[in-house]
């Protein structure tokens, strides 16, 4: 699977050359109108002084002003379209990349921080187009043309104005450096509070049951205050730009009036030319401000782009399938026709921890039948499942699935050969139909969906939903914990994979539905390998093969009845479960 291409602002902006060209042309038209109005005003004053009619000049001034405004509006609309398309492309690319990152990296980054990349980060990047690269050339042209016209009218007044604006520009240039650093800090802080709030919402039932709303609110308010303080610093920096520029304009205007008054008193400057010059000076503030703001947005956009590209440079899950390595076409081709899963001296330690989760673990799961994995909490059961699905890779040893090392499998084929139901019975916030068929590339016949729901006793519950199979669950409408668990099992029923992996699948099932589950498992295990992390005794008793772990190592394995007689730790675990 190829790595996501890095974001380049110039490439993103020029993806729509026709719209960009028209936007620039309308921007130029607006600029021409802005330049023409002071000159028309100059001519009006001169004609009035000479007693000539100015009716057509006044009409022309209104027409030029209206045309300039319309052109500016059209340019802004086209830029908005370009910006919305850019945000769409970046969001899709970033979401697709995040979905393909290693599980451990996603958990380390946090859902909130990653979510902020496709919300606030993309909106900040859009400002690069709204105020940045596309409008800056037009603004620069307007500034240059205005300065040229001002120099043509009076070079001395132009020098006075340029000196003042140069001093203002130096001050604002220093502010840009602080604005960029603050923008990065703001995005990190927003990602942090989003992550904290998201984790608290995931634990909302515990919070409410513990009456901990006030404590959690205080914790979040401290985080929010940090975000507020960082944001306030940025707001102050942004707000300071306008008075600095406005102050510079006022100083320039006062200087121009003083120098212009002296020139007019000596007869070297006409009132008409002075009026046109002042109009140019007054309208110069807007494009100059846009230039400064544009440079600021570019600096912020550069910082946000670097955050995006750092994320996009994070390696995706390695697809596997090294050159020359192929999945065996048949079990016999691998010489492992009786095994579904093999762990060969596997060791694994989670990053940042010293104690190994697994230590030289070896066992095998038959290619057909039910195998259960048992052990006390912390024994390494969940780590085993993560290695089977290749959510992570072993530090030492080898994991084989259906006859091939997991690293030799193309990732899509590996997971396409396994049906996996986690211990949280995770469902998508999507329709019942989508949840049932999420592992299928083609649409699943509706009859098959209802048959699977009937097998787990969910027919009546789904028919009672507002839109039946098309009801979106997980938002306004949801299922109970046991119903969600049975829906996840129905999804497993619809699969035709060679390996079914279930993590504590009966934890929320009542006696009737557990009997249904046992029947389903017996049916599945006739034709495929069913590998279950189990705590319920009924599941263990029906298994042909039981594997017991403790402390990341193998304690013993064999049939349930045999282990009861020969394995003291298993017998103790069995007794403890029976008592509970």
From TrEMBL:
Domain ABC transmembrane type-1, chain residue ranges per copy: 22-298
SMART domains recorded: AAA
Main localization, broad class: membrane
Region listing for Disordered, in residue ranges: 314-333
UniProt keyword list: ATP-binding, Membrane, Nucleotide-binding, Transmembrane, Transmembrane helix
CC terms in the record's Gene Ontology section: plasma membrane
GO molecular function: ABC-type oligopeptide transporter activity; ATP binding; ATP hydrolysis activity
Keyword set includes Transmembrane: yes
Compartment list: Cell membrane
InterPro entries in the cross-refs: AAA+_ATPase, ABC1_TM_dom, ABC1_TM_sf, ABC_transporter-like_ATP-bd, ABC_transporter-like_CS, P-loop_NTPase, Type_1_exporter
Matching PROSITE patterns: ABC_TM1F (PS50929), ABC_TRANSPORTER_1 (PS00211), ABC_TRANSPORTER_2 (PS50893)
Membrane-topology annotation of the record: Multi-pass membrane protein
Transmembrane segments: 56-80, 133-153, 159-179, 236-259, 271-292
Residue intervals of the ABC transporter domain: 341-576
Protein name, per record: ABC transporter ATP-binding protein
Organism: Streptomyces montanisoli
């Amino acid at each position: 699977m190829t790595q996501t291409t890095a974001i380049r602002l110039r490439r993103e902006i020029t993806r729509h050359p026709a719209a960009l060209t028209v936007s620039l042309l309308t921007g130029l038209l607006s600029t021409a109108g802005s330049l023409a109005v002071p000159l028309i005003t100059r001519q009006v004053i001169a004609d009035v002084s000479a007693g000539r009619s100015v009716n057509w000049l006044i009409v022309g001034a209104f027409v030029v002003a209206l045309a300039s405004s319309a052109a500016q509006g059209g340019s802004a609309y086209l830029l908005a379209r370009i910006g919305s398309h850019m945000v769409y492309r970046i969001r899709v690319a970033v979401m697709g990349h995040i979905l393909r990152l290693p599980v451990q990296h996603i958990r380390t980054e946090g859902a909130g921080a990653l979510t902020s990349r496709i919300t606030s980060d993309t909106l900040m990047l859009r400002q690069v187009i709204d105020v940045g690269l596309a409008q800056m050339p037009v603004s620069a042209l307007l500034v240059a043309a205005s300065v040229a016209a001002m120099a043509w009218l009076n070079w001395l007044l132009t020098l006075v104005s340029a000196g003042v604006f140069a001093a203002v520009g130096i001050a604002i240039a220093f502010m840009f450096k602080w604005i960029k650093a603050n923008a990065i800090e703001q995005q990190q802080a927003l990602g942090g509070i989003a992550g904290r709030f998201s984790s608290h919402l995931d634990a909302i039932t515990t919070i409410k049951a513990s009456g901990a709303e006030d404590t959690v609110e205080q914790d979040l308010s401290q985080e929010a205050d940090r975000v507020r303080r960082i944001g306030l610093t940025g707001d102050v920096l942004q707000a300071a730009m306008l008075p600095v520029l406005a102050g510079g304009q006022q100083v320039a205007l006062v200087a121009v009036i003083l120098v212009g008054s002296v020139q007019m008193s000596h007869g070297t400057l006409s009132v008409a030319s002075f009026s046109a010059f002042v109009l140019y000076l007054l309208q110069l503030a807007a494009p100059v401000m846009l230039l400064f703001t544009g440079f600021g947005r570019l600096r912020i956009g550069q910082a946000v782009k670097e955050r995006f590209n750092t994320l996009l440079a994070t390696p995706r899950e390695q697809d596997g399938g090294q050159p020359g390595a192929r999945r065996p076409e048949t079990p016999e081709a691998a010489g492992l026709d009786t095994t579904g899963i093999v762990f060969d001296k596997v060791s694994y330690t989670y990053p940042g921890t010293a104690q190994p989760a697994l230590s030289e673990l070896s066992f095998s799961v038959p290619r057909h039948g039910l195998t259960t994995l048992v052990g006390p909490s912390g024994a390494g059961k969940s780590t085993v499942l993560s290695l089977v699905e290749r959510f992570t890779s072993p530090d030492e040893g080898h994991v084989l699935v259906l006859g091939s090392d997991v690293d030799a499998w193309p990732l899509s084929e590996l997971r396409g050969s396994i049906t996996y139901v986690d211990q949280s019975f995770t469902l998508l916030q999507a329709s019942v139909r989508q949840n049932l068929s999420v592992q299928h590339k083609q649409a699943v016949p509706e009859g098959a969906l209802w048959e699977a729901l009937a097998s787990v006793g969910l027919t009546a519950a789904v028919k009672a939903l507002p839109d039946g199979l098309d009801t979106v669950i997980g938002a306004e409408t949801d299922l109970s914990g046991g119903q969600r668990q049975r829906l996840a099992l129905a999804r497993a029923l619809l699969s035709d994979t060679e390996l079914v992996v279930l993590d504590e699948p009966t934890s929320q099932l009542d006696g009737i539905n557990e009997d249904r589950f046992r029947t389903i498992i017996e049916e599945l295990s006739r034709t495929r390998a069913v590998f279950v992390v189990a705590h319920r005794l009924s599941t263990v008793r029906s298994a042909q093969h039981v594997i017991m772990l403790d402390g990341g190592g193998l304690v013993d394995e064999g049939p349930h009845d045999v282990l009861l007689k020969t394995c003291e730790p298993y017998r103790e675990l069995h007794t403890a479960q029976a008592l509970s």
